[in-house]
Amino acid sequence: MSKGTVGGGGTTMLRRINVASVLDAVRRSAPAPLRVAELVERTGLARPTVAQAVDELLDAGWLQQHGPDSADRSLGRPAIRVSLRGRAAPVLGLDVGPHRVTVGVSDLAGRKLSLVRRSGPGWTAQELLGVISEVINEALAEAEVPAEDIAAAVAASPGIVDEHTGRVQLVPSVPGWSAIDLIKHVRGLLDCPVMLDNDANLAALAIAAARGGTGTLLAVQWGERLGAGIVIDGRLHRGTGAAGEIGFIATGPDDVINPDDSRGPLERAVGSEAIAALGRQAALDNPQSRLAELGGEQLDTADVFAAAAERDPVAQAVVQQVARAFARALAPSVLVLDPTAVVIGGGVARAGAVLLDAISDQLRLLTLNHPKLELSALAEDAVVTGAMRMALDEVWQRKLPTPAMTSTT
Amino acid sequence: MSKGTVGGGGTTMLRRINVASVLDAVRRSAPAPLRVAELVERTGLARPTVAQAVDELLDAGWLQQHGPDSADRSLGRPAIRVSLRGRAAPVLGLDVGPHRVTVGVSDLAGRKLSLVRRSGPGWTAQELLGVISEVINEALAEAEVPAEDIAAAVAASPGIVDEHTGRVQLVPSVPGWSAIDLIKHVRGLLDCPVMLDNDANLAALAIAAARGGTGTLLAVQWGERLGAGIVIDGRLHRGTGAAGEIGFIATGPDDVINPDDSRGPLERAVGSEAIAALGRQAALDNPQSRLAELGGEQLDTADVFAAAAERDPVAQAVVQQVARAFARALAPSVLVLDPTAVVIGGGVARAGAVLLDAISDQLRLLTLNHPKLELSALAEDAVVTGAMRMALDEVWQRKLPTPAMTSTT
DNA sequence: GTATTTACGAACGCTCGCTATCTATACTGT
DNA sequence: ACAGTATAGATAGCGAGCGTTCGTAAATAC
After folding, report:
1. Over the stretch B154-186, which tens digit does the pLDDT of each residue have?
2. CA-CA to B19 of 20 to 30 Å: which in A6, A326, B77, B292?
3. pLDDT of residue B8
4. For A84-198, where are the alpha helices, taking DSSP H only?
5. CB distance B243–A44 less than 8 Å?
6. Which residue among B44, B336, B340 places its CB closest to the CB of A246?
7. Is residue B311 helix, strand or coil?
8. Residue B32: left (phi > 0), alpha (psi -120 to 50), or beta?
9. What is the pLDDT of residue B403?
10. Under a CB-based contact definition with an 8 Å cutoff, are residues A222 and A344 in contact?
11. Does pTM surpass 0.70?
């Protein structure tokens, strides 16, 4: 690493490349086992080479051998089939929120082995560390994976994360959280590469992986807070470290960012608390509306969308107002990024089509290429899923020296 | 190519990788010749391997041999030094505007061999094709490069460009231009891969190359029209094809994009014509101001900035207004992209520090991480330079099988 | 029970890169 | 002026890996 060497080397390098090529081919066909003949075709290598590589990978534990498929009714000697041995390098994803800690353990092939959630009423930073340890151990136990087997771990934290130092810069919800070195804590438990990233970024990664393929994705996490992650051709865009902070977009013509305020203007305008507040005000102004009826004193964000879905004009006006503010704030970024799709996740995404259509209508007036506008299908597990995804990417990037670009899938 | 093969192969593949590795090492140290010993160190390969590769590359014409440097006062037998033979694969860049056609021919090493400009008073689409042919031939003659030697060509056109079909979608300035297949025309002249891209994109590529290194760059072209290109770690971000169209960002609270209007709201608000119009109005309202004095009847955009530079409060107010509108329009994208730098080029960039400082002040209020704000150093040649740059990238990508990622420069 | 089909396994030959050695060249010190 | 030395280039031998070819094993079809 200290040397500026590039790619080439001796024949052992060539062997490593070819082994990686075989492993990559197996990985691409995810859970489906492959016959050696298929590997020969996909890699373009000769059969002995593939066979040797497969042997090596079997010995190293990366592949597992299957018996001949009974369903495979073909002539001739039945082929040995191999597939990824997921337990070879399981990974761990960690989602830390102010009120909830979620830990997932995943297969090398991307299968979830376990997923453990723990909710609580606002922990302190110190308590949180303890909870994290407990939940991690629980998830490991459930997955039946010893801690030392974990090959990589990724933690998600709200706030702006410095990718390299692993420090969190800006977290309002948990007092004292930014002083904690989460990476160090997790590394103490796991002894493997541990990375930390923004929760919106990781959710975006999960959504991009679920959608598959290439293109640009803008994944908005919309709850009390408002953030977004950008994934371009499968890679996360971080900028200098704070990319996607749409919560701080100014809305009014004279808005500015208040450095002492942990929330941004757009969060204050259309965050779920703001939506509830708008709803309450509208209910007060229109006491006989369906909205007031539904919500009562404790009117909630969900009530606003429910009433709007029932075609209550008062609630619809609130939704319109929110959608308009959101769309106008997001439109410049849509013009600049020109994403293939904009996916909305987080608590507000539960609003469903009512909100989505309103945003879509507004966005259509303000953009050139209109991206697909969708709701996230992953719901609240998006962040953990993304964390596991990133950990997997890390493992593969370490194991595969070849970037291995294929034109066709 | 028809097979979905990946990377590996026999030993000849290994040889190709190593040769490419050597070639890449030479390329990285751009115009400076390298000794074989240095290549050994940089590639990490053994000396005989490098020597063989160098021989092969010399035979193929990719490298040229230098005599021992007389300035090199070192002990021992003087080293043979090799450098890129630029003439091996010269490339051509083409910038087509409504009033000007520019063609540049560049070395494989990035040295400009020739640069020919031709200005005219608004050609028709047909006339433009003729002019393009002439200017290309002139540039080839000046560079002393036969047309068939050109290894790749990139053309820049205003408007939104479909990367694959090579069609231009939206060009207001040249009537009938979108119907012309520019790629086909150029390919008829050159017989090599020809690509077409947006002018703002190519300017961004040139600026990014000049700045060097990694990071995210937002390069704004600000003249009568307003566009931007995004370069992330050296790669152009295209989105679905229309990324960077900042001219269409809505400014007023009720602005929408008019599909029949070839200009966008922000262009209409702060394009150079708008700036001149604002200046004229201000001069009318304040007849004894320095601005009115400077500009007179034919008040120009440049006059506004000149008067502002002389601390005329009337002109400064105009600049403030423009800067404010621009910054507020750009701020959301800066938050989302979080670029390392924002570079402003195009005609308005000649305004200099007056405008830049005003924008910087505004942007500071509206963003979290404040990117470096700079003026483009490349002036009007940015687009051709970027076109040549992209053509070079294409050639290298074709010639180098190894992506060859180096951590250190 | 035999023929056919498919896949695995082993031996041979080829190419390539690395290590080690030798030769060539120019500067330096006596 | 001549020998010494330091640096760079050229050459042989070795090892490793891949690809081709042949032989063998196991299942199905007739």
Report:
1. 999 877 777 666 666 655 556 666 656 788 889
2. B77
3. 56
4. 125-143, 182-190
5. no
6. B336
7. coil
8. beta
9. 43
10. yes
11. yes
Q: How confident is the model at residue B75 (pLDDT cuts 50, 70, 90)?
A: confident
- What pLDDT score does B209 carry? 93
Going across the sheet that includes B112-119, the strands are B112-119, B100-106, B91-96, B152-157, B194-198
Q: Say yes or no to pLDDT of A67 above 60.
A: yes
Residues 368 through 397 of chain A touching chain B, CB cutoff 8 Å? 368-369, 371
Beta-bridged to residue A226, according to DSSP, are A222
CB contact under 8 A, A371 and B240: yes
Interchain proximity A367–B248, CB inside 8 Å: yes
* Contact of A376 with A345, CB cutoff 8 Å: yes
What pLDDT score does A44 carry?
Answer: 84
**Does residue A177 have a pLDDT over 80?**
no
Percent of chain B with pLDDT over 90: 52
Give residue numbers, 44 to 103 of B, with CB < 7 Å from strand C: 45-49, 52-53, 68, 73, 75-78
Residue A172 in this model has a pLDDT that exceeds 70 = no
Which residues 6+ apart lie within 8 Å of B366 measured at CB? A250, A255, A256, A257, B327, B328, B331, B334, B335
CA distance B347 to B337: 25
| Inter-residue contact B69 to B83 (CB < 8 Å) | no
Q: Does any CB of chain B come closer than 8 Å to the CB of residue A215? A: yes
Q: Which residues contact B126 (CB under 8 A, 6 or more apart)?
A: B176
Span B319-367, pLDDT tens digits: 999 999 999 999 999 999 999 999 999 989 888 898 999 999 999 999 9
Contacts with B250 from chain A: Cβ below 8 Å? 328, 331-332, 366
Between CA A286 and CA A263 the distance in angstroms is 30
Q: Which long-range contacts (CB under 8 A, 24 or more apart) does A73-82 make?
A: A79/A35, A79/A36, A79/A37, A80/A35, A80/A36, A81/A33, A81/A34, A81/A35, A82/A26, A82/A33, A82/A34, A82/A36, A82/A39, A82/A54, A82/A57, A82/A58
How far is the alpha carbon of A43 from chain B, nearest alpha carbon, in Å? 5
> Tokens at residue B80, please?
């043979």
Task: Provide the b/e sequence for A217-233 (b: ≥16 CB within 10 Å).
Answer: bbbbbbbbbbbbbbbbe
Residue B333 contacts A where some CB pair is shorter than 8 Å? yes
Rounded to whole angstroms, the Cα distance separating A126 from A151 reads: 26
Give residues 44 to 83 of A whose Cβ lies within 8 Å of B.
Answer: 44-45, 49
Count H helices, E strands: chain A?
Answer: 13, 13
Per-residue model confidence (pLDDT) at position B320: 94
Q: What's the CA A294/C1' C19 distance, rounded, in angstroms?
A: 84
Chain B residues with CB-CB distance to A172 below 8 A: none
Could you give the CA distance from residue B58 to residue B83 in angstroms, rounded to a whole number?
10
A and B: number of Cβ contacts within 8 A: 223
Q: Are A228 and A204 in contact (CB under 8 A)?
A: yes
pLDDT at A163: 66
Predicted confidence (pLDDT) at residue A348 exceeds the cutoff of 80: yes
Over range A186-193, report the average pLDDT: 92
With cut-offs at 50, 70 and 90, classify the pLDDT of residue B406.
Answer: very low
